[in-house]
Amino acid sequence: MPDIDRRHYGLDWLRLIAFGLLIFYHVGMFYVPWFWHVKSNYVSPAAEPLMLALNPWRLALLFFISGVALRFAVDKAPSARRFAVARTRILGLPLLFGVFVLVMPQTYFQLRQSGDFSGSILDFYLPYLQGRLPVFTPTWNHLWYIAYLLAYTLLIIPVAPLLRRAARSRLFQRYARTPAAILFLTILPFMGYEATLMHWFPITDDFIHDWGQHAHRLTILLLGFLVAKDRGFWNSVGRLLPITVVLAILLHFWGESLARAVLGDSVAGATVRLAFQVLYAWSCILAMLGFGQRYLDRPSKALQYLTGAIFCYYVVHQTITVVAGYYLTQLHLGVWREFTLLVAITVFGCVISYELGRRTGAFGVLIGIQNHRGPVAKRESPSDERAPARPAQAEA
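The chain above was modelled as a monomer; its predicted structure follows.
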């Protein structure tokens, strides 16, 4: 990365890839046996291996990129107060609109499919607001990511000067310029979280009691913030690229079986398996960062358009998938025809939402569109925007 202060187009592409994987992951949740809002008639474990391969790193990559983007945005902001107000508006308004309007149909169709509610969606809305339903409402469902990101952003803004100084410290510079340290030392805190906090505070997405998840998400976001403009770190990521690809493949297919064969179910075996699991996730992230830096670091019209659209896609996609899936599976079309239609409807609905939103001021803001300049709106700021998630986790 020759110019650390210029826009990271490779990270923009990776952000699109991470959000795209998230959208398709939620389509997959409609088909695998894990709990989700609505389920297909064709539930099967067939897609589980792919989803389990993505689970440990897809959201961690997104939070890491969020930290990089936050560093660039904070450094360009005219004042900390103005930046905090702007970011609260950009993230807070879609979150509120989602909780009180956009997410509501997800719970409605969930309870209709389970047989716990049979009235109209208008009859459903007041009990939804009042919390008089068999599930917790009102809720943010998949939009928990926005709430967490906003909270972490507001936490980091006041201490940004201290974080910049920490990034320039001799100790951190030695870490950033040592590929082996980046690869192996970085996993230590996450191993600690998995061995302690994640047992005491399992993932809930309720924010208040989610300390294990907070530790994961905030740490990876802070790491992205610290290394965003560190040339040594990005050079190390480039040097690690072949190693991280091979390591990720080996650990995914043979890591756990090797540790179990050599050490069995002993404490040492459990520790090595945990290390391999976390190292697999981090190797995938480093491989993606290296790939983006080497092969994707260039602008394009498609990138410009999708960078402006992808956060809107994220905000609206799950409601589209839930509603479409609820009705499609009643038609008994067969799994592949149903799946193809569900993907097409989800993508088409995201595109239409963005195209409508960027042509209307208030609605666009509510569904996560930041800039409004008519039909040819352009983004000028770096990309803005989940640590391993468990298979049974419905949201994310």
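The radius of gyration is 21 Å.
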